[in-house]
């Protein structure tokens, strides 16, 4: 397991002096300002001073149509599905259960409503190591595909759950059992569905035999959403130099996106535990036979790889923005260089080439905000350094912070940052807190939260190192007008950069 990178914390000599505030305490009875003329002069002087401060100070709040690109501070194998009503659903690997999240916005998935929709039995073939769940809506029912085993990795297989409720948060997901190839019941993970007109196909990553020497991609027809209707067919194996980094060689995480007459099968390649993990691309024509290996053509170069301080991007899924005008890729990446399977979930828009293949470009730099998905409401952004600091908390310059400044030294029990926020109406709001945590030994940090003086639980910050900013999410109830949201020292150590506030639907 990779060692967590722990950077330096804010040193006292780095903290700059906070600006003082001009105050005036005068009454009509004080000498020298008894007359309206004198009052007018004082008011004029104060107004000029306020104007000068306003022109030189960075505002504590601003409306923005950007966000910092972390959807979840921890998680792997993200699957995002946009339903016909516009709701986004997402799953990630938890290992021990299947948790479903939903949100009206893509950028708000990290703080969306969540529920454990299935817990495995105490023992059996699907009792342990639950990986890469995917939620699909097929034939007016919900189907959940996931990999699991009995505690032994060589026994990993694909399984299916079914729920006939219109709302996947309601009803019950019941097991439809294992989904496996006839006469080839081999190790299998990362299953997904290709829906072509009235035909369904199942695509997954698996071993050719019983040995863990290589992961290939296989496809088979589906007789129904939980039963294969024919033998498996190999459509890809790792052969190119960027596919064969690490051992065993890996092709996994297949995902499908169709554009015009082109079927794009995006997959992950290279050692998933390395910074060289990346995305590859197979294509086939919509009119071709997807069960024929000759229908699939592999690109010689990675379609998406490390860059811009983002390492090991992989296991992608694809959705459109709320307004339906933009295409977005959602993927996991290492939280910091060399972190291996310690990951966060990111998203960014992509475009299309003239031949119907996706153009992902490079990973968006993590310290530069990107435009919100089209159709999402703007965020109100509050900079931590302009808020009320208590205890040992203080601000310091930092090149990767939102406005070049952060707040750290929340070291003592009385240390806190209190944000003063304004909302037009009472209701539930989503907080997106940009933080850094480099607590020793890779420990998770946390802050207690209070809203208008009333305790509101806590918020956790997964460890990514001091200089690797991420987002943590929390929904809170606010009253109309001004609200005080206080973050107080709890477990470990964390620094704060800024807070994005948006109504939670």
Automatic annotation (TrEMBL):
Keywords: Glycosidase, Hydrolase, Signal. GO terms for molecular function: alpha-L-arabinofuranosidase activity; carbohydrate binding. It is an enzyme of class 3 (hydrolase). Its EC number is 3.2.1.55. Belongs to the glycosyl hydrolase 43 family. Residues 380-502 form the CBM6 domain. The record marks 190 as: Important for catalytic activity, responsible for pKa modulation of the active site Glu and correct orientation of both the proton donor and substrate. Pfam families: CBM_35, Glyco_hydro_43. GO terms for biological process: carbohydrate metabolic process. Residues 290-318, 352-381, 389-408 are annotated as: Disordered. Residues 363-376 have a biased composition (Pro residues). This is Inverting alpha-1,5-L-arabinofuranosidase. CDD domains: GH43_LbAraf43-like.
């Amino acid at each position: 397991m990779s060692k967590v990178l722990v950077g330096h914390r804010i040193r006292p000599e780095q903290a700059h002096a906070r600006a003082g505030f001009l105050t005036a305490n005068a009454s009509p009875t004080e000498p020298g300002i008894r007359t309206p003329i004198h009052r007018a002069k004082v008011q004029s002087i104060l107004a000029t001073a306020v104007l000068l401060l306003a022109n030189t100070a960075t505002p504590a709040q601003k409306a923005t149509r950007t966000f910092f690109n972390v959807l979840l501070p921890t998680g792997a194998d993200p699957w995002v599905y946009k339903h016909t009503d516009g709701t986004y659903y997402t799953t990630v690997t938890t290992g021990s259960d299947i948790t479903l999240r939903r949100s009206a916005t893509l950028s708000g998935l990290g703080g969306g409503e969540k529920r454990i929709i299935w817990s495995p039995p105490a023992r059996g073939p699907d009792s342990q190591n639950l990986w890469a769940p995917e939620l699909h809506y097929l034939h007016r029912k919900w189907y959940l595909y996931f990999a699991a085993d009995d505690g032994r990795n060589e026994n990993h297989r694909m399984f299916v759950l079914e729920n006939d409720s219109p709302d996947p948060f309601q009803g019950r997901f019941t097991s439809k059992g294992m989904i496996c190839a006839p006469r080839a019941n081999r190790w299998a993970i990362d299953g997904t569905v290709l829906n072509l007109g009235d035909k369904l196909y199942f695509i997954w990553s698996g071993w050719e035999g019983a040995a863990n020497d290589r992961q290939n991609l296989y496809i088979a027809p589906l007789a129904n959403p939980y039963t294969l209707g024919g033998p498996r067919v190999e459509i890809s194996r790792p052969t190119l130099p960027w596919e064969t980094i690490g051992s065993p060689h890996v092709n996994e995480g297949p995902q499908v996106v169709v554009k015009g007459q082109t079927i794009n099968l995006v997959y992950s390649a290279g050692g998933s535990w390395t910074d060289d993990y990346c995305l590859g691309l197979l294509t086939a024509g919509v009119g071709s036979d997807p069960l024929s290996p000759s229908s699939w053509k592999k690109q010689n170069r990675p379609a998406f790889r490390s860059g811009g301080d983002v390492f090991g991007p992989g296991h992608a899924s694809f959705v459109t923005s709320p307004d339906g005008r933009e295409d977005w890729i959602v993927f996991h990446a290492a939280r910091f260089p060399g972190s291996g399977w310690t990951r966060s979930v990111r998203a960014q828009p992509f475009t299309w080439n003239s031949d119907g293949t996706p153009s992902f470009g490079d990973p968006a730099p993590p310290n530069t905000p990107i435009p919100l998905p089209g159709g999402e409401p703007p965020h109100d952004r509050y900079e931590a350094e302009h808020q009320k600091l208590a205890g040992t908390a203080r601000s310091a310059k930092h090149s990767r912070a939102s406005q070049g400044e952060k707040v750290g030294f929340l070291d003592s029990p009385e240390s806190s940052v209190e944000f003063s926020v304004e909302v037009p109406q009472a209701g539930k709001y989503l907080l997106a807190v940009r933080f850094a945590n480099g607590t020793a030994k890779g420990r998770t940090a946390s802050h207690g939260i209070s809203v208008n003086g009333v305790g509101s639980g806590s918020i956790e910050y997964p460890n990514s190192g001091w200089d690797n900013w991420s987002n943590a999410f929390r929904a809170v109830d606010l009253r109309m007008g001004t609200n005080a949201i206080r973050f107080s020292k709890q477990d470990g150590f964390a620094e704060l950069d800024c807070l994005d506030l948006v109504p939670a639907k």
